[in-house]
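queue> holo job accepted (protoporphyrin IX containing FE)
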Amino acid sequence: MEPKDTHQANTPQEASAVASNQLEEKHPLVIRWTHWINFPLMVVLTWSGLLLYWENSNFRVGLGSFTLVKLFPAAFYEALHLNNRNPEGLAWHLSLMWLFTANWLVYLAYLGVSGKWRYIAPNRSTFGRALGVMLHDLHLRKAKPPQGKYNGAQKLAYSAVALMGVLMIVTGFALWKPEKLGWLAVPFGGVDNAKAVHFWLTILFFLYFVVHVAQVVRAGWSNFRSMIVGYELVSNLGGAQPEPSEPLLRRLSLAAGVTAEAQIRERSIRGFVIASVAAAIVVGTLMWVGSQSGDEEVPRPLKWATEGRDEEHERDREREEQGPIHSASRPLRTEESESK
Ligand code: HEM
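queue> job finished
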């Protein structure tokens, strides 16, 4: 995931090669917008998921009866003020799940229609290359595996993430209306298993996020900028060539007298201004919605998402009292069970 060199010219030959620097399209507009829209959505969905999960915090890492870590201990919820906020969590979660689903589907549809899925889809050589990347990153192997647009490790990670998003959506909808959409949970072995998959996917997404951001920091500014601006400066000196199996990445032709450096500067200013305005609108909207507390601290603009839920839960509870449990409705976490 290394950025391509922007080379300083030392010799006349190099100078003419540097002069042929070009802008290469790295991330098309749809990929950039869906990527950055996804980020705040995932943050709020994870946070609101924890507000919901507080009620029934029963996953753990361990073997048999031995528990290494309880996910999560009461102290965790208290420290982050995640306790006793179930209705609020539900309203955020059920509102944003629609945006997350729509955004993810746009991303996948674009990958499919544009053929850009080829950049992230693994092939037979990907696993070997991913291992090569790991050994290289750990300084255990000198040779750098071929990069292409994405290296083997990135291909594996990004295709896994694309699939994880789909599983998140499917399990999420199964949990949303278990009576009507419980069939979505059948491949997972039922609603309870779908709930476990939904939870562990969140943990996996979080771990992915930590590694992903660390890799982005490591890869440097030019790589990060390309996810905002769309283009990267490439020189014919030392720049990695796309893999032959991948279609060539589009290069911008420059008008006479315009250098690639001037072009990227101009595009960066435009890109970062738009990104800052968009980020301010998102943060402002989230803060405004959060401040519109109605009953039970549920923000009024999000009320629509949970309308009818109380009656459904009531019906659920009655059914549970009558017969075997087949729904995702949870026993309430009481102060009593809390203190255990
Ligand atoms: C919310 C969690 C995130 C997810 C699920 C995610 C997922 C992804 C995916 C799937 C790609 C590949 C896109 C494609 O070409 O199809 C990608 C690329 C990228 N992401 Fe993220 N991302 C997340 C957060 C972030 C954050 C916070 C940053 C910035 C610090 C970031 C920076 C980048 C960059 C720079 C690339 C391009 C990497 C390259 O070209 O080598 N991402 N991300």
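queue> Residues 29-241+250-339 form a domain with the Fumarate Reductase Cytochrome B subunit fold (CATH 1.20.950.20).
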